[in-house]
């Protein structure tokens, strides 16, 4: 199987979403969650253990991977990347052979979601693992045979491929980012993780997780396992109360990192602390504490050298990313909810000159039932004080038109921005490449913010980094 056909094949497991105006019935078989709205349809975690067994992996095989499981709304991927970096630097400093698996999402290119020792999974290994999972689940036969057994969806398949690969490749520790939610998330099949953690919680996936911070906190803390250490950062009061309640219910020892500076000064001096970008400090602090607690359980500890080298060497594309290209500076961050938009706007204003030309490229592809995309854009505009000279709205990702929106939605974006900033020039393009070309027409020495969808950011990075 070629890599191209493997990528196309795994993308074929995507579910088709109903039209935005259509109501999606709530499945009567879906677990009812106290303090949280029920999700729609089947619980994503349903079937995962059975599928793993079919491809030869028992729960003890998963537990032996030393899984660090991370949920949250903002900063999950970055936190996972920092944990990976800290553990790699610790192993290097101590001459330890430690193979680290990292599973994150999202990415336009499926193999990029699965990394070993920080490297995206080689295309031939991805194709081999996909083929083995498909054969193990007997999904390579006649699809018209009428079998009533459910098959995995895309995210379920990606989680199966990743853990199958980690076991086959002899990985020593796995850092796993939950997709969304936690309690019913497709990654929540690990009975005995090494440690669990929750990053900052905000309003996101409200149709599935519920319409309040308390609802969402209930779901996120569903990754807690009895007796397993959990860590989190300072949260809104309702979220903190719910997290503490669930930790008590599950007999989970929990550490709240309330003071980011104090948490980091356990490992680094004040000069190093000040050198860490403001927007990254909370994620770095959480990641350092996760890595430290993990290593303590193994009879070791994290130190200043590990943290300094880990911060310096951590590369997480599309998160507070700055790229100089053809005379302009590109600021790229996949901020796809209201909480993230406030942070990316604050970052952009802090690192750019106020009197230099500012350009925004924005796209969002989530179903309206999942995210209030108008509210997200409005949050961005308000956070930027609408001080943008040119705005470009993108309709689709040319690499994968599964990620697209309607012209009507782009019209709504444009109208919202025009109403709040009448002097701004507003443009709509079909593809990311067209949006980038339009931004370049406004000359050099410009500061171009690319945000909204992580898929938009990844596609833009592929173009401007050349």
Task: Give the key terms.
466 residues, alpha/beta, Protein-Tyrosine Phosphatase, Chain A, 8-stranded mixed beta sheet, 14 strands, Mur_ligase_C, tetrahydrofolate synthase, one-carbon metabolism
Can you offer a commentary on this structure?
It is an enzyme of class 6 (ligase). One of its GO terms (biological process) is one-carbon metabolic process. It catalyses: (6S)-5,6,7,8-tetrahydrofolyl-(gamma-L-Glu)(n) + L-glutamate + ATP = (6S)-5,6,7,8-tetrahydrofolyl-(gamma-L-Glu)(n+1) + ADP + phosphate + H(+). It comes from Penicillium angulare. Its EC number is 6.3.2.17. With 466 residues, this protein is of the alpha/beta class. It folds into 2 domains: 3-11 and 28-313, 3-Layer(aba) Sandwich (UDP-N-acetylmuramoyl-L-alanine:D-glutamate ligase), CATH 3.40.1190.10; 321-464, Mur ligase, C-terminal domain (Protein-Tyrosine Phosphatase, Chain A), CATH 3.90.190. Helix content is 41%, strand content 14%. The protein contains 18 helices and 14 strands. The chain has helices spanning 3-11, 48-54, 59-63, 76-94, 123-136, 154-168, 206-209, 213-220, 237-249, 260-265, 270-275, 281-297, 304-313, 338-351, 373-383, 407-420, 432-440, 454-464; strands spanning 67-71, 100-103, 114-116, 119-120, 173-177, 195-198, 230-233, 254-257, 321-325, 328-333, 358-363, 390-394, 425-429, 447-452. The strands form 2 sheets. The chain has an 8-stranded mixed sheet. Strand 7, helix 9 (237-249) and strand 8 form a beta-alpha-beta unit. Helix 4 (76-94) packs across helix 13 (304-313) and helix 14 (338-351) packs parallel to helix 15. The protein starts with a helix and ends with a helix. Residues 17-32 have low confidence and may be disordered.
């Amino acid at each position: 199987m070629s890599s191209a056909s493997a990528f196309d094949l795994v993308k074929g497991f995507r579910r088709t979403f109903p039209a935005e105006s259509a109501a999606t019935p709530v499945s009567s078989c879906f677990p009812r969650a106290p303090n949280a709205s029920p999700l729609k349809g089947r619980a994503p975690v349903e079937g995962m253990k059975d599928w793993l067994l079919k491809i030869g992996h028992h729960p003890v095989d998963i537990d032996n991977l030393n899984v660090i499981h991370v949920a949250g709304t903002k900063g999950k991927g970055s936190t996972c990347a920092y944990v990976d970096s800290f553990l790699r630097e610790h192993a290097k400093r101590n001459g330890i052979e430690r193979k680290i698996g990292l599973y994150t999402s999202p990415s336009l290119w499926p193999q990029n979601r699965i990394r070993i020792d920080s490297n995206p999974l080689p295309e031939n290994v991805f194709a081999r693992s996909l083929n083995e999972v498909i054969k193990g689940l007997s999904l390579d036969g006649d699809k018209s045979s009428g079998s009533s057994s459910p098959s995995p969806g895309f995210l379920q398949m990606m989680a199966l491929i990743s853990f199958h690969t980690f076991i086959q490749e002899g990985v020593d520790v796995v850092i796993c980012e939950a997709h969304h939610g936690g309690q019913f998330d497709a990654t929540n099949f690990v009975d005995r993780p090494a440690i669990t953690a929750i990053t900052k919680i905000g309003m996101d996936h409200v149709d599935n997780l519920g319409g309040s911070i308390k609802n969402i906190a209930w779901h996120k803390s569903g990754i807690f396992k009895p007796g397993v250490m959990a860590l989190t950062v300072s949260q809104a009061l309702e979220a903190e109360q719910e997290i503490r309640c669930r930790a008590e219910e599950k007999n989970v020892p929990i550490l709240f990192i309330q003071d980011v500076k104090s948490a980091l000064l356990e490992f680094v001096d004040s000069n190093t602390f000040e050198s860490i970008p403001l927007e990254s400090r909370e994620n770095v602090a959480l990641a350092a504490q996760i890595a430290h607690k993990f290593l303590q359980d193994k009879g070791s500890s994290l130190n200043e050298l590990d943290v300094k080298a880990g911060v310096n060497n951590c590369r997480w594309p599309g998160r507070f990313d700055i790229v100089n290209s053809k005379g302009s500076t590109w600021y790229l961050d996949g901020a796809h909810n209201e909480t993230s938009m406030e942070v990316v706007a604050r970052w952009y204003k802090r690192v750019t000159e106020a009197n230099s030309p500012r350009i925004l490229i924005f796209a969002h592809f989530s179903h309206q039932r999942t995210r209030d995309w108008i509210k997200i854009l409005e949050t961005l505009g308000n956070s930027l004080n609408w001080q943008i000279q040119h705005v470009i709205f993108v309709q689709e990702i040319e690499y994968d038109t599964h990620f697209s929106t309607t012209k009507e939605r782009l019209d709504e974006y444009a109208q919202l921005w025009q109403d709040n900033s009448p002097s701004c020039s507003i443009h709509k393009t079909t593809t990311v490449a067209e949006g980038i070309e339009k931004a370049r027409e406004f000359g050099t020495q410009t500061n171009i913010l690319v945000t909204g969808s992580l898929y938009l950011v990844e596609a833009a990075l592929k173009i401007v980094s050349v």
